[in-house]
Amino acid sequence: MSETLGPEPPAPAPQAPATNGRSRALVITAGVLIALFFGLTTFSGFYTDRMWYRSGGFGSVFSTMLWTRVALFAVFGLVMAVVVAVNVMVAYRLRPMFVGMPDANGMGRYRDAISPIRRWVVLGIAAVLAVFSGTSGAGAWRTYLLWRNGSDFGTEDAQFGRDIGFFVFDLPWLHFMVDFAMAVFVVSLLAAALTHYLYGGISLQTPGDRMSGAAQAQLSLLLGLFVLAKGADYWLDRFDLVSQAGGLITGITYTDDNAVLPAKNILLGISIICAVLFFLNVWRRTWMLPSVGIALLALSAILLGVIWPGIVQQFQVNPSEPNRERDYIARNIEATRAAYDLTDVEVEQYTPDATLGSSLAQLDGETKSIPLVDPQVVRPAFEQTQQVRSYYSVADVLDVDRYDIDGTERALVLGVRELNPAGVPDQNWSNLATVYTHGNGIIAAYANQRDRTDSEQIDTEADSGEDVGIEWAQGTQSSEQDLQDATGGFEQQVYYGEQSPTYSVVGKAEEGDEDIELNLPTVGSEDDSTLTTFTGDGDAPVGSVFNKLMFAIKFGEPNFLLSDRVNSGSKVLYDRNPSQRVEKAAPWLTVDSDPYPAVVDGRILWIVDGYTVTDRYPGSERESFDEMTDDALATETTGLQTLPTDEINYMRNAVKATVDAYTGQVTLYEWDTEDPILKAWQGAFPGTVEPREEISDELLDHLRYPEDLFKVQRYQFARYHVTDPGDWYQSNDRWEVPEDPDVSGTFQPPYRVFVDNPLVAGNDEKFALTSVYVPYKKNNLASFVSVNSDAASDEYGDMSVLQLPNEQTPGPALVANQFSSDQDVADALAQFNRSGARVLRGNLLTLPVNDGLMYVQPVYALRELSDASFPILRYVLTKYGDNIGLGTTLRDSLEDLIRSSGITPDTSGTGGGKGDKGDQGGQTDPEAPSGPVSEQIDDLLAQAEAAFEAADKAFADGDLGAYQDSVKEAQDLIGQALELSSAGSGSSAGEGAGDGSTDAPSDSPTEDSSGG
């Protein structure tokens, strides 16, 4: 059958399964959606930022940054893409017409695969390179703008005789250009070599010539250009030596001047010779000379750039380093003092004479401004007694400012009552975004301790059971409105602050619509809360559907599209931290870590200090900004937005900025009118910085010397107060900032106080930022430093240093140990361990008083048995000379200080003390004792002892009202005893009063510090 019909036809080949069209569509759809998601996310950030800048009046900043980045991206991206693409095309056109057979390098199959899509491959590679190169170029927008707008500093460096502006403005941009050129030549070289290899121009497997003449010419040209660019890099590296950190100093050293710098010049010359050899190789077609040149360059880089400087350092410098480096150390000292604005610091020799007299009135007058309310310790007291609602809070570390209260300039500890989203009762989007939108008002307390005769406030506090040893200047009671009265009232609502939510949606569609934002009622109102609506400009309107979509994408919140609370009149408030807003409005500034509030012209303003910094100042010492500003109160930082690292060697307080706590409006004011870096940025962003003359007098009164600048200056001055190079090298007189006695491993923070210069007769107290130095690795006091912090004064910024004789005055660590080891202090503080409380030590202050230096430290008690407890000022410790004082107020401590020196204090003319305050608070007079004076004193002290024991029991039970009553009764009794003692009723009576005043504080809980 088969033979008849013939062979059977072959079986049909199995058919491949049809491509699943649905799967392909799903993949394409998923890819499109992913691309759309990332595109919309990027665009939403761009679009909302544009609205933010325009609404705040900084649209020009946004447009300048945008178009500068776009231009740099386009230029550097196109240059890289075009140069590489042209070299690939040239390599392709110069390929050999015939490739030897068989295909020696096995590239034939790759050529066949690429040929149909060759142009697309070249375009794709060029596009990828353009993106990477353009991104790098756009990232250098700050460097470009400084180069474009920079000017001279007016000072030349000591090594090259060039203006400092060249190193700060020009050199970074020149480095970027040269590095970019080297990258272009290297990438082009690799791309051309790969193309030649692919198309047979380079054949490593064949004998004879392994490279065509065309390939050799093109690669020689590219290599010559690269080596020439490397020569330019060597030339620029010479100038980098003046700001390069070394082991001894920053800047040129003996080895740099006599070994590294000549080596750079020689390498520059060799690079030029090598480049010429490569260019000649385009015609000579031999790799011998270029190879020798490259080998010589590499060998010279090792011998001259590494080995020779090491030999010079080891055998010429190290054996006599002080003599070799003397001139270079002198340059470093001069440059460092100039770069950190330390040239005019005045150092005066000061020999303290801590001699106590008997006049308590004089000593009390000298110390009346000493602050006892520690901004870090009393925060819980501010919150527990004045925050009013659980959804309000204050900053972790409070601020200090001064105000004219009743004709007297007083230092106040301030805390803005900000919104705390964690305390909102119902954590839903409507509440968090539209109802709980803002904080309310300022809490203020007097920083220093005053014995007041105003019983109204004290009675109110005692009756409410909220007396915490603080005299309030602005709180929740009608009697606590000193700040409001002094400033004439101010806008209370706080929409922008250090703890504000990420964003809030405010505003309403129609004027007649109901208010929904929760507000704190005014003082005296019977309502628990009121409602309000934000009426400021806001950061961005959100009414349109497109804007709603943009913000929904930006914040990942669909309620922007779904909630009816987002209406046509809605605005979005975001980027609400004052520091963040200033950094965004002025992206060329480094801002201070501590913005502070002030009441100015009826508004709460956040004041932010802005710095211009660089790491390119010739010869100035480079240090980590974080390290120089670190102390016990420092917050975590995230580096500098203007520099690649956190190292700087130049700093100026160029700008004072304000942020309105209600509207969020950022205003930048020129401060350092001579700063060349500020002038460069003003050229780049014209009109964004207001002239210094625009600062109002009221705002000027609240500007102060910035903390971070002072910390940086005191860090550098610790070593650079020495101007003799030999002494500087030996470090014989090197200082350091002392370690905080209560926070191990951190510097003691500076403090703002009213001080006077004891060396200037009739000198008035100045509001100053102060600190102390101790000798390097020692604990005695070396000097006291202060800087005038009153911006309205002609002496603002003047830094004064009182240098003490060596080994005579104890430093903070030694004084803290002496306080702890003093028996009276130990006995007084031991009671806290027995009553479930722990001791919190406040600022250990060092201040010039009379002709000596006085240490003052407040001591607080915190009951740990309750989550609602807060620190209460219990004692004040003082040290003057060799004497230590202990009391429940500063005045009591001063009395004890005088008495401990063997002198009976003269309390006449003091104008009232704790005995005078004893009848305040509605207390009944104790039974008047009778009999001889000594017996009367003993009887009074016995009654006081019983009253203190009752106060201890009330404090342990948490009954603050009874505790306060007992304390005031004891104070009254002790006051009467002191009056009898000071009346001169006999030596035995005097001794009895002295003993009573010493023992009583040891057993007594505390008293109302009335302003401490």
From TrEMBL:
Entry GO CC: extracellular region; plasma membrane
InterPro entries according to UniProt: UPF0182 (IPR005372)
Membrane topology category: Multi-pass membrane protein
Tree of life domain: Bacteria
Membrane spanning residue stretches: 25-47, 67-92, 120-141, 180-199, 266-283, 292-311
Polar residues bias locations: 1001-1012
Statement: the UniProt record of this protein carries the keyword Cell membrane: yes
Subcellular location: Cell membrane
Keywords: Cell membrane, Membrane, Transmembrane, Transmembrane helix
Residue numbers spanned by region Disordered: 900-934, 978-1012
Main location class: membrane
Family as reported in the entry's similarity comment: Belongs to the UPF0182 family.
Protein name: UPF0182 protein I601_0046
